[in-house]
Amino acid sequence: MSLDRPPAAEADAGHARAPRPLRFAARTGWDLSGNSLASVLAEARGAGRALVDFTESNPTRCGIVETAHLIAPLGEPRGARYSPLPLGDPAARAAVSRYYRERGLDVNPSSVVLTASTSEAYGWLLKLLAERGDDVLVPVPSYPLLEYLACLEDVALTPYPLLREEGWRIDLGALERAAGERTRAVVLVHPNNPTGSFVRRDDAAALEAWAGERGLALIVDEVFGDYAHGDLAPDRLPSFAGSRQALTFVLSGLSKVMALPQLKLGWIAVSGPPELAAAALERLEVIADTYLSVGTPVQLALPEILASRAPVQRAILSRVQANLAALDAAIEAHAGGAVRRLPIDGGWYATLEVPRVHDEDGWVELLVRDEGIIVHPGYFFDMPRDGFLVVGLLLDPDVFAEAALRLAGRIARAISGE
Fold it and tell me: Which of these, 13, 65, 319, 372, is most buried using a 10 Å CB contact count?
């Protein structure tokens, strides 16, 4: 349709043209069709079956600990006034610094940048570090969210392996070989999700030195950093926060630290060579000022919320450890020797290595159809080969223990040919 004449006049003049179809950006051209698991779940739910969802990762749905009182500080009257500060309210940034100091880590408040979430933090850092077509090294296995975040920033992901036989240790040689001329950063998920592995101290030191020499930044996702299962082994690094050799961005937030994902507040702790860190913070301030995405009420409430974290984290760790013990007992009772729960240092997930009498989709569908149990296939996390299932550890302990027995029993029967 012409913009300079009425539609009727254009038609009368014989100039009518078919409308041009609207085009969406290629970066959003994901395959949105349902997979076989979605069909099985839809069938089960349509039949009204009760399902036990071992993929549940939302702590607000698991009845772990009462956190309603932590929402009350959002009513602070000062929150009625909007006074935007790109890097975040000074008292809130100081609260993040105090959180690290109480963990024995030195993070200056001036190096803290508040974000609306860890996902947003990734997006800002990819904007900061990478041009279109550059690449970032990411661990496998790991959580699939990174693929979408990188896609939205037109950045490529290049995988580097974690070695299962060595407790998911970083394969430093493979990581170095994966780096190319357009590599701009290395992502670490620490502890890893879903393997629960913390980086070794000597690997961290070697990686920092190499990244500094290559002009690469480290992006370290530590959202599960408070959830080590007991004392870490001496060779494990508790956190990358604090003074580092390479330019380093440590990510975390209230979603996991306080089990409050609905409050939408995360942060980046910047460290590294002083000139580099200062330049990064200057540019991050412009990015943050462009979005101004963190709500004022949650920033004002942050000091009080973070000061209340101890009982929340104790409750979560107690739940995780109880369910991990129940899972181990169920495997020992029904499938000992045939199913192996892989060792983990921390986090909210456990990985099961199962015989390949079915592929992972086959196992997932079997458990839904026969037992009403939902688990993650290992390939969801880019496991190195077929034969893994991943379960979350947040469910009510009685529900979890009963379902774990049924899960282990059904796997054992499938192995014997039933």
Answer: 319
Average the pLDDT over 55-81 and give the result. Answer: 95
Phi-psi region of 17 (alpha: psi -120 to 50; beta: other; left: phi over 0): beta
- Read off the amino acid at residue 80: A
pTM of the model: 0.94
Tell the burial category of 213 from Cβ atoms under 10 Å away from its Cβ (0-12, 13-18, 19+): exposed
List of residues 6+ apart from 252 with CB closer than 8 A: 118, 221, 222, 223, 225, 266, 267, 269
Query: What gap in Å lies between CA 7 and CA 15, rounded to an integer?
Result: 10
Q: Are 347 and 392 in contact (CB under 8 A)?
A: no
Average pLDDT (215-223) is 98
> How far apart, in whole angstroms, are the C-alpha atoms of residue 331 and residue 391?
13
Radius of gyration of the chain (CA): 24
Residue 41 has pLDDT above 80, yes or no: yes
> What is residue 377's three-state secondary structure?
strand
CA dihedral 348, 161, 190, 238 (to 10 degrees): 120
- State residue 40's pLDDT score: 85
For 29, list phi and psi in degrees, rounded to 5.
Answer: -85, 50
CA gap 323, 52 in Å, rounded: 14
198/347 Cα distance (integer angstroms): 10
Per-residue pLDDT tens digits for 320-360: 999 999 999 999 998 778 899 999 999 999 999 999 999 99
* 99 in Cβ contact with 306 (< 8 Å): yes
Yes or no: say if 76 and 397 are a contact pair by the CB < 8 Å rule.
no
